[in-house]
């Protein structure tokens, strides 16, 4: 099979999860709409895709996800109210999300795992390589991971996954990759992948984090992939097939990421992400850091 080398322009963002770890907040509000400081988490992800040159975004949604579509649409009543008040600053921020990218939506229907969500994107993506961004992982814009992954894919073809070294005791929370070095320090060749292994069975401490650049050959593999861990169609299992049978769709490479990543899928990490990002804001940081230092000192004295 000829490796696809077309310029990547499409991003797929699976957003059909129920967000049960954040109940009751997510009973009526999609977890992707939970605010990180003053923007919903999903907006950071779309902004990352756009910054990497991906202006066409497909969101794979499910029931009760209408607020996602509303957020990236125009709100004429709100815009008119802000215009009448002469509030140009807030007006610009409201319009920002609707002007970011060309947004498309498809419903996953039966939630059968990440691999199935990616498969739902086939009619939109067609035969072009594309990126997949998971909404629980926020990558700091100062660390352009996705742009680097796209560069690697365009040079080598095939698919590219993002890898991050984690504590071996945490590897059971991720997909784990067996890797071989290349002549580029941050790029490795992936030879095997295992979804959420026990530490003793993990091929390495390199975990797959929520960024992928995929060759369209992954669709045919996903159609034949049987439900795996958790009874779901796992994207990791399809990528393992591609890594072990290069003729199906090119090699699988990994970009080893050592930058700033915020996990908003875990309640504790979600709170830490808010604190970190608020501290770094020019408008909020100075006062917030002063209060935070005072609060920590008071806690230490008790």
TrEMBL record:
Tell me which EC number(s) this protein carries: 2.7.7.9
Cite the GO molecular-function annotations of the record.
Answer: UTP:glucose-1-phosphate uridylyltransferase activity
Keywords annotated in UniProt: Nucleotidyltransferase, Transferase
What catalytic activity is recorded? Answer: alpha-D-glucose 1-phosphate + UTP + H(+) = UDP-alpha-D-glucose + diphosphate
Taxonomically, the superkingdom here is: Bacteria
* InterPro entries to which the protein is assigned, alphabetical: GalU_uridylyltTrfase_bac/arc, NTP_transferase_dom, Nucleotide-diphossugar_trans
Against Pfam families, the record matches this protein to: NTP_transferase
Enzyme class comes to transferase
Which Gene3D superfamilies does the record match to this protein? Answer: Spore Coat Polysaccharide Biosynthesis Protein SpsA, Chain A
Nucleotidyl transferase domain residues are 10-274
UniProt family annotation: Belongs to the UDPGP type 2 family.
Name the record gives this protein: UTP--glucose-1-phosphate uridylyltransferase
Name the species this protein comes from. Answer: Actinacidiphila acidipaludis
**Organism placement in taxonomy:** Bacteria, Bacillati, Actinomycetota, Actinomycetes, Kitasatosporales
- Whichever gene encodes this chain, its name is galU
């Amino acid at each position: 099979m000829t490796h696809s080398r077309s310029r990547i322009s499409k991003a797929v963002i699976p957003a059909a999860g129920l967000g049960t770890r954040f109940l009751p907040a997510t009973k009526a509000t999609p977890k992707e709409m939970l605010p990180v400081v003053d923007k919903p988490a999903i907006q950071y992800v779309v902004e990352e895709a756009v910054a990497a040159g991906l202006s066409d975004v497909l969101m794979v949604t499910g029931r009760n996800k209408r607020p996602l579509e509303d957020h990236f649409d125009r709100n004429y009543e709100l815009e008119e109210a802000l215009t009448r008040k002469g509030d140009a600053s807030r007006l610009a921020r409201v319009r920002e999300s609707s002007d970011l990218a060309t947004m498309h939506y498809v419903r996953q229907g039966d939630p059968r795992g990440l691999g199935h969500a990616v498969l739902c994107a086939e009619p939109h993506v067609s035969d072009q390589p594309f990126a997949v961004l998971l909404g629980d992982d926020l990558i700091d814009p100062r660390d352009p991971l996705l742009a680097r992954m796209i560069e690697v894919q365009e040079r080598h073809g095939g698919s590219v996954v993002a890898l991050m070294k984690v504590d071996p005791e945490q590897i059971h929370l991720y997909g784990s990759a067996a890797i071989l070095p290349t002549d580029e320090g941050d790029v490795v060749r992936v030879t095997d992948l295992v979804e959420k292994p026990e530490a003793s069975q993990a091929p390495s401490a390199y975990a797959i984090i929520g960024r992928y650049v995929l060759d369209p050959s992954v669709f045919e593999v996903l159609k034949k992939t049987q439900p795996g861990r958790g009874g779901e169609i796992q994207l990791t299992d399809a990528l393992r097939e591609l890594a072990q049978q290069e003729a199906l769709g090119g090699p699988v490479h990994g970009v080893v990421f050592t930058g700033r990543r915020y996990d908003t899928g875990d309640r504790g990490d979600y709170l830490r992400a808010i604190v970190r990002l608020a501290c770094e804001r020019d408008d909020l940081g100075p006062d917030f850091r002063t209060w935070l230092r005072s609060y920590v000192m008071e806690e230490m004295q008790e």
